[in-house]
Amino acid sequence: MRRLGHALAGLAALVCVLLSLALLGIVVPRAADRDFPPAGTATGRTAVYLAANPIHTDILLPATPEMLARFGFLARDGLPLDHPDLATIVVGWGGRAFYTQTPTWADLTMDAVWRSVTLDRSVLHVSLGGRVSEEQPGLLRLDLSDAAFAALVGFVEESFEPGADGTPRVLPGAAYGAFDRFYEARGRFNLLLGCNTWTAAALRAAGLPTGLWSPLPPSLLWGLRLHAPVATSS
């Protein structure tokens, strides 16, 4: 019983430490990589969105002609960029095993969990989306100047691991359906530096300060609202 008590006390202490770190990760700011003028009529303005579920965030880019040209490799890999309902390009970064093997929680395996807890290769998931409804739960709008938006897109593009021809390398046979693909990505994944910390880094590249550490969607979103209220006010 004494050993059990010590184990429970140790577990409780660990939980308290993690909760304290998570709280500090929200309230302590992490500066943007560079400053951009606020979005407005003088500098141009582009709306992008963050889509969050309980464990993951995606960045929704507008499917403008310019973006479709820059992501033209998606058509090469079988995605219908001429679809009449296409309005957004949805991008997320994550661990290869967990991301590619777990389209639903019912598909979760111990291998995917173990690789996420330790260290895994990373992938980028790119999918085609329709029009955005701002009433959708878990959706946050960010208003960026044209320069900030260009920096965000540049960060996303630099996250792809290119093949011999210089274009992103698709993972053959890895997709959830007809409107998405997985690509090799730069960087390694684990639970402490995972998908949401990548999203936070992308936003800092676009001139938005975040919380110091954003391991989960709530910590990322709360940190943005605290440290970048102008961009998240609409």
From TrEMBL:
Top-level taxonomic group: Bacteria
InterPro entries named in the record: CHP02117
Name of the featured protein: Uncharacterized protein (TIGR02117 family)
